[in-house]
Amino acid sequence: MLVTGGLGGVMQAAARGAREAGGLTVGILPGPSHRDANAFVDVAIVTDLGHARNAIVVRSSHAVIALPGEFGTLSEVALALKMGIPVVGLGAWTHLEGVIPAEGPDAAVARAIERAEQVHAKPR
Question: Are residues 83 and 55 in the same domain?
Fold first, then answer.
């Protein structure tokens, strides 16, 4: 399952790739309408919280893959690190302590899954 902010750009590209690979896509929207979701969102969650919805996106994730972005992306990276959720940086944010670097999309996904499994493994 892929969780994004549900809008366009990188979020739409990620949702498209996840859906094409057979995954479920969830968009946690900043505004008051499900119509704002991109065409590749299977489940649209309307929050009307603006940027505050970033905390919901992060808390709903087992790992975060961060691409180059602006302050919204930075807030998600910071929240994830504060919450102990693994962050993989793909072309950005790797100068921040705790962000795991990845050279390409496949490596980013592999590292995110690996770290999520380590952090969220159930004790026996």
Answer: no
Instruction: Place 121 in a pLDDT band, splitting at 50, 70 and 90.
Output: confident
**Together in a domain, 86 and 114:** yes
pLDDT bin (cut points 50, 70, 90) of residue 33 is: very high
Q: Dig out the tokens for 121 from the structure.
A: 């493994």
Asked whether the predicted pLDDT for residue 124 surpasses 70, the reply is: no
- 48 and 86 in a common domain: no
Same domain, 45 and 73: no
What average pLDDT score do residues 96-115 get? 96
Cα 113 to Cα 25: distance, rounded to the nearest angstrom: 16
Contact criterion met (CB below 8 Å) for 85 and 58: yes
Kindly state the helix (H) or strand (E) to which residue 25 belongs, with its residue range.
strand 25-29
Q: Any bridge partners for residue 101, and if so which?
A: 89
Distance in angstroms (rounded) separating the CA atoms of residues 55 and 65: 15
Q: How far is CA 109 from CA 27, 53, 65, in A?
A: 18, 23, 8
Q: Name residue 18's amino acid.
A: A
